[in-house]
């Protein structure tokens, strides 16, 4: 199996003291890999570094074997990486349709890409003209994911999609990720504090603690170790 993403010896942070310390991570193409860990373990910082928002002070990030150090942030989307940040980043004043279009402003096939998102996310199709602030939490999460998909990524970085959502809605979002992976071959790096939900769809995972990877193994082993099932 080939790896879409390889991270080696990654160090990054916000000031003098690093938050991420010597992170190694491999994400096989077409897999769902989850990043678990307590509040403050460094999960969000890892995603922000992978998507170019934070500059690493050491280490390598390889996307399809290509070193991203010299790649500009705005190029990363075109190279196939999309980031759905924690808190979703939906523009409240814009409609669902306008929010989706933002995901692919530079594309000449943006109409087709938006139409595909409506096929995947039926509730969004029914609310095309609604403003972002009128959506439920689950719909807003769908919109944030949908907007990332309009860029037609091959690797989706997803930060805590379950945050603030009812268990039933979280389960729907997880099922959607699985469907996307099966139907389109999308690779997902899924940051979650909700281990039970994440491990219900992941193939493998890592547990972060104090900015390091404490454990890296299959989802089954993580389920056995953390959930007893
Ligand atoms: P959470 O689930 O709360 O988002 P996390 O595992 O994603 O937790 P991070 O948000 O990556 O953890 O935070 C890791 C560490 O980095 C914490 O000690 C946090 O205080 C620190 N940190 C996060 N953002 C900043 C920032 N903008 N400036 C300085 N320090 C930060």
3D architecture notes:
The chain has 229 residues and is α/β, with parallel strands linked by helices. It has a domain at 1-80 and 154-163 and 189-229: P-loop containing nucleotide triphosphate hydrolases (Rossmann fold, 3-Layer(aba) Sandwich). The chain is 37% helix and 28% strand. The chain has helices at 43-50, 73-79, 96-102, 110-120, 122-125, 137-150, 167-184, 195-201, 219-227; strands spanning 3-13, 18-28, 32-37, 58-63, 66-67, 81-84, 155-159, 187-191, 204-209, 212-218. It has a 6-stranded mixed beta sheet with strand order 6-7-8-3-9-10, with helices on both faces. A 4-stranded antiparallel beta sheet has the order 2-1-4-5, covered by helices on one side. Strand 1 (3-13) and strand 2 form a beta hairpin. The radius of gyration is 17 Å and the shape is globular. Bound molecules: adenosine-5'-triphosphate. Adenosine-5'-triphosphate is lined by residues 14, 19, 37, 39-45, 193. Belongs to the ABC transporter superfamily. This is ABC transporter ATP-binding protein.
């Amino acid at each position: 199996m080939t790896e879409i993403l390889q991270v080696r010896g990654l160090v990054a942070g916000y000031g003098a003291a690093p938050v991420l310390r010597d992170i190694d991570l491999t994400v096989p193409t077409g897999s769902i890999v989850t990043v678990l860990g307590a509040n403050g373990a460094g999960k969000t910082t890892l995603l922000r570094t992978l998507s170019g928002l934070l500059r690493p002070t050491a280490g390598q990030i390889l996307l399809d074997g290509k070193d991203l150090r010299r790649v500009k942030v705005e190029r990363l989307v075109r190279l196939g990486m999309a980031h759905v940040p924690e808190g979703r980043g939906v523009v409240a004043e814009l409609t669902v349709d306008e929010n989706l279009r933002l995901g692919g402003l530079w594309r000449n096939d943006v109409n087709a890409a938006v139409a595909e998102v409506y096929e995947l996310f039926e509730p969004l199709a029914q609310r095309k003209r609604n403003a972002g602030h009128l959506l439920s939490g689950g719909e807003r999460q769908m919109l944030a994911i949908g907007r990332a998909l309009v860029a037609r990524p091959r690797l989706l970085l997803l930060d805590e999609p379950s945050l603030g959502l009812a268990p039933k809605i979280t389960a729907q979002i997880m099922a959607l990720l699985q469907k996307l992976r099966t139907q389109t071959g999308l690779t997902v790096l899924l940051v979650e504090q909700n281990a039970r939900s994440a491990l219900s769809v992941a193939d493998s995972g890592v547990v972060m603690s104090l900015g390091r990877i404490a454990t890296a193994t299959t989802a089954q082993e993580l389920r056995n170790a953390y959930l007893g099932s």
